[in-house]
């Protein structure tokens, strides 16, 4: 068997990817399929950390959050990522992978706090580390949390799993004539306002020289292919 192209990566899963075709929440079949993909690369010896979003849960409560103070709504969003992280960690346990959930906000009866050396230790032990509660701060996103934690753990690459198979010239859901980039620089992605990730996340990765690969979570085998160094998605580089 050929060796994986990376030793340590950070995978960003959007909360919405967990919904499958449901309107909100966690779709069982979808999470199981995702976990099977993730388990496969963990078993290949790749050190894997995951940041998961909260859009799937937060969307369900969003109507009630209308007119709410932004910071309060953001804390609700962070709690939603804790729920997704627990679900993901448990789904991993069910397939025999040891995962550790670490939270950026104090909630220690539920999840252990994020402590960087501890996270590094888990990774070295081959455990999957799931970073919950984003950056722990309102006005940020889990994409930025992925850029931050990816930098902190010295990941070689941030893998941004989305419903589209890369970065396009415009949002492909709105513009059917949009074409996909094979590679694009951070500066170009930022200046063209390509919305696939937020500018804060792009800028942080650019400054840390941490490349991002945007790829499809829906396409079977895509994650494994790109871990093996295959041509998949779009590489965002310095
Ligand atoms: N230039 C672009 N290239 C690719 N996707 C884009 C672009 N602009 C906007 N998008 C949208 O960004 C989404 C990817 O972000 P993601 O984090 O998965 O979604 P969300 O932020 O809704 O959870 C895609 O589903 C796509 O519709
Ligand atoms: O560092 C963070 C990360 C997340 N959030 C909140 O949590 C929500 C869910 O995260 P995100 O939208 O990034 O999830 P995704 O779109 O990937 O499902 C966000 O909308 C924010 O309200 C936050 O306030 N700070």
TrEMBL record:
GO MF entry, a single one: UMP kinase activity
Pathway: Pyrimidine metabolism; CTP biosynthesis via de novo pathway; UDP from UMP (UMPK route): step 1/1
Pfam families reported in the protein's UniProt record: AA_kinase
Residues reported in the UniProt entry to bind ATP: 12-15, 55, 59, 162, 168, 171
Keywords associated with the record: ATP-binding, Cytoplasm, Kinase, Nucleotide-binding, Pyrimidine biosynthesis, Transferase
Top-rank EC class of the record's enzyme: transferase
EC numbers, comma separated: 2.7.4.22
Activity modulation comment: Inhibited by UTP.
UniProt: UMP binding residues: 54, 74, 135-142
UniProt main location, coarse: cytoplasm
Annotated catalysed reactions: UMP + ATP = UDP + ADP
Family affiliation: Belongs to the UMP kinase family.
General function of this protein: Catalyzes the reversible phosphorylation of UMP to UDP.
NCBIfam families xrefs: pyrH_bact (TIGR02075)
Protein name as catalogued: Uridylate kinase
Source organism: Undibacterium flavidum
GN (gene name): pyrH
């Amino acid at each position: 068997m050929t060796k994986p192209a990376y030793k340590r990566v950070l995978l960003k899963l959007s909360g919405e990817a967990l919904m499958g075709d449901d309107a909100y929440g966690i779709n069982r079949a979808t999470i199981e399929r995702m976990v099977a993909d993730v388990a496969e690369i963990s078993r290949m010896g790749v050190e894997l950390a995951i940041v998961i979003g909260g859009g799937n849960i937060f969307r369900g409560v969003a109507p009630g959050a209308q007119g709410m103070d932004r910071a309060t709504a953001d804390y609700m969003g962070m709690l939603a990522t804790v729920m997704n992280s627990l679900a993901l960690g448990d789904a991993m346990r069910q397939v025999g992978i040891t995962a550790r959930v670490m939270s950026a906000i104090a909630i220690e009866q539920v999840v252990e706090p994020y402590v960087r050396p501890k996270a590094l230790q888990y990774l070295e032990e081959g455990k999957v580390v799931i970073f919950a509660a984003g950056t722990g701060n309102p006005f940020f996103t889990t994409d930025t949390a992925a850029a931050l934690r990816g930098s902190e753990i010295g990941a070689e690459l941030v893998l941004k799993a989305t419903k589209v198979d890369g970065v396009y010239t415009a949002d492909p859901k709105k513009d059917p004539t949009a074409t996909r980039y094979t590679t694009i620089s951070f500066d170009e992605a930022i200046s063209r306002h390509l919305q696939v990730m937020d500018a804060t996340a792009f800028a942080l990765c650019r400054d840390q020289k941490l490349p991002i690969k945007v790829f499809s979570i829906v396409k079977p085998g895509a994650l494994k292919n790109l871990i093996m160094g295959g041509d998949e998605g779009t590489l965002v580089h310095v």
